Amino acid sequence: MAADTLHTPRLHTGPAPGTPGISLHGLTLAYGRRVLLRDAASVPPGSLTALIGRNGTGKSTLLRAVAGLGAAASGGIELCGKPLAALTPLQRASTVSFVTTDKVRIANLACEDVVALGRAPYTNWIGRMQETDRDIVARSLRLVGMEAFARKTMDRMSDGECQRILIARALAQDTPVILLDEPTAFLDLPNRYELASLLRRLAHEEGKCIFFSTHDLDVALGLCDATALIDTPTLHCMSAADMAASGHIERLFAGAGISFDPATLTIRLAKK
User: Fold this and answer.
1) Tens digit of pLDDT for each residue in 155-174?
2) Closest by Cα among 172, 198, 167, 210 to 45
3) Assigned domain for 262 exists
């Protein structure tokens, strides 16, 4: 009997030099008849980019569209220079991973087994992992500082620890593009900064294009390489420093009795 034909796990090197990790071409997103976004932008590899905006402006809708989980009304999306619409499900699964905002606590699986789910695109039809797959799972746990939790279950862990395990699963999926929907939503202040610092390190050291939504303006401007702001229906995307000085954030708070100081990156009540 012939040996099992297993996929050889492969590490992605990301897009070719000069090719964005994510490219939006005349993209239009809508919710019913309401246009949420109509714009073009790009997110480079090896960078951490925060997506900010008011509630209901389409941050989650945009991330789902980039992940291939929601259709655009018009325009196109490219991942690493390839049209998203042309990718097969397997190609998409090996190009982009998505960590949602849902609280996930899998009680009957050890953390290393949860992380191993990220290897699904590279294993055979019965999900058998090779030694290389197991090495990638172990390395993913080490990268997020959770190797000591390999045999623990997520029902006994904090929100921050669970979020790290889900990021490890995305790393094990070995995609050049990683999307996260509000990964700091359930974390206290120290853990928010710690998680954002982890994402920044993974983007720079692993060459990942990491694009995440957040309501933490200080994280978006203080720890990220670039910031994308949805000001319906426009998407402004620029370096964090340029975003702070652009005036777009001041307009975000217009009429709310709140002011933004671009010099100190602080928010305060507007003086009457």
Assistant:
1) 989 988 999 999 999 999 99
2) 210
3) no
